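FORM 7B - TANDEM STRUCTURE REPORT

SECTION 1: FIRST PROTEIN
SEQUENCE AND TOKENS:
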Amino acid sequence: MTLRKGEKMTISIQEHMAIDVCPGPIKPIKQISDYFPRFPRGLPAAVGRSSSLRSAVSQPSVSPAEAPREEDEDVDQLFGAYGTTPAEQPAKCPAPEEVVDPEGYESDDCTTLGTLDFSLLYDQENNALHCTINKAKLPKLDYKKGLKPMDHNGLADPYVKLHLLPGASKANKLRTKTLRNTLNPTWNETLTYYGITDEDMIRKTLRISVCDEDKFRHNEFIGETRIPLKKLKPNQTKNFNICLEKQLPIDKTEDKSLEERGRILISLKYSSQKQGLLVGIIRCAHLAAMDANGYSDPYVKTYLKPDEDKKSKHKTAVKKKTLNPEFNEEFCYEIKHGDLAKKTLEVTVWDYDIGKSNDFIGGVVLGINAKGERLKHWFDCLKNKDKKIERWHTLTNELPGAVLSD
């Protein structure tokens, strides 16, 4: 085709888009991303994205492993062969599952709900379980992780609640103080369960819950953990630092079937000096709640039967609004040591009510006709004069021959 002077050569769009259809093997088409440099996730703050791109384009050095093949030469002339030398090669981006959360928490439930540091000690001699709550590390709560913020400032007012399972009574629940506006609370507070027996250590579980206190709404649950008490060795402190879990259901049926009326700690001593039996009412634990507020106003009565003159009745002071009262009162029954084998000691626990009949909570009978620990306690008292012997006893709601009225 001849061109006149000053006329430019034009190329039709058909010629421009012409495809080479010469016979031959089909060559693979490279992806467009192969011709652009790859950058690590998150550039340094001092280096802008545009400046990084310009520096990469201005240094088109190619590593031997990425040398262009013969079929790529035409494309390389258009785009350039971008790459980096081994010395300049940036670190590979982590695989998606290895990416660390920018907030510093992993995405699993474990660290999402936080961790709790605490220790447990079973004092076998004193029948006490000591739980020391040290500290917790709570996550930043947000909707992305499926957790709503506890407070509008993204913080919480956390406290820790203990609950012995099985057992639905409020007497089984203890709690720490509340710490305000923190996600890293440190309590260093010891909560104690009294009246814990070896049997409890085999069959019971300690539920530890972390909650957020709210003055104007219901307190909100954050996370919990459960420790079977059989994991503990007597008189040995065991430390825990474990992840909190989602709330687990409680078997209400099991709780009701194993519900107890409570426990009482009684001391017995036959005093040669006073020529009588000293009965000490020390404390009660885990009493059943008899009032609408979920508590009781307990007191204890003791009888030494048979009591023909009806003079053996003794009564402790009333402790208001508690299920774990401490009395520390002692009563003396003047009686010959040889006559004790014919006597029975009845101990009953009551809830005091104003203007109506007092409610019976539970009782226990000690004597030569008793069984198990109740018989052993009585027998040890008779055998060891002038020695005070303390025992925990489980209250029952049925006492043969007992006067169930006040």
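SECTION 2: SECOND PROTEIN
SEQUENCE AND TOKENS:
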Amino acid sequence: MGSFLKGKSIKEWQGAFDRLKEMPLGKVHEIPRIVVDGLEANERMIFLDIACFLNGYGKEEIIKSLEQCCVHANSGIEILSQKSLIYIDENNKVWMHDLLQEMGRQIVIQECPDNPGKRSRIWRHEDALQAVRQNSGTDAIEGIKLDKADVEELILNADSFKKMKKLRLFIMVDQVPHCGPAGNLSEKLWRCFARHNNNILLS
């Protein structure tokens, strides 16, 4: 909270404290939500991307990837770090505490609790497969993660992605989480992305 309120006006401090007073006893774990709710759109987007996909990735890798899809990642990561929502270790990797990561994922789940295809981000293996197999993905989806082993199956149903007009993050995971270059995708699947998505990053 101190990091969040640094540099804020007295009125903003008072508003934050008033909200804390309204919080029921035993709900201390919800305090970070106040900080997240107060983020600008750019920083909130980066926070959720890290919570859902990029926790533990290299800082430069994240910046390079997100800035390709018009996200101001360099300044955004610095702001999140200043607010203690993430930390950067000695190897220049970006980390988020488990509780903050779970909170971020819950924010995404609450976008549409009953239908993962209508959420902005899909990171669960079974939800991602359902979205592409059943063509249940929508234009709400901004990011999706799939196991690399599933890509060949996706080739048979490449048009599953045509509804995902806002897709900007596509992450393939092998045994160890990593960002694979677009060349790892089949030509057919790549053409599908290029045809249906104007602003897309393949990580």
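SECTION 3: OBSERVATIONS ON SECOND PROTEIN
Residues 113-202 form one domain.
The chain has ten helices and six strands.

SECTION 4: SIGNATURE
Preparer initials: ____
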